[in-house]
Amino acid sequence: MYLYIFFQSSYSYKTASVDNLEVKKRYLIELHRGGKEIDGKYISQTNDSVMFTVNKTAINFPVNEIKSIKRKKASTFLI
Fold it and tell me: Is 61:68 a contact under the CB 8 Å cutoff?
């Protein structure tokens, strides 16, 4: 007798503000100057900038350049 268990995962996004970001969590950052959304992990922030790691590189984003921030959350389903 064989038992097969399959997992399927999907991502959902929830809008977040600069004031309630959690360290080492994944976020999608959309900037005012357009382009695609940037996927990164939150590191830290100051009054005028927020730091994320994107592709293992630390990048500072000025707060006034950020259009929206969305929390990326993985959901796993058992099939």
Answer: no
- If you count DSSP H runs as helices and E runs as strands, how many of each does the chain have, helices first? 0, 6
Taking only the tens place, the pLDDT of each residue in 19-72 is 899 999 999 999 998 778 899 999 999 999 999 999 999 999 999 999 999 997
Q: How many domains does the chain have?
A: 1
| pTM value surpassing 0.85 | no
In a domain, 2, yes or no: no
Strands 49-54 and 57-62, bridge-based pairing: antiparallel
Tell me, yes or no, whether 1 lies in a domain: no
CATH code of the domain covering residue 62: 2.30.30.100
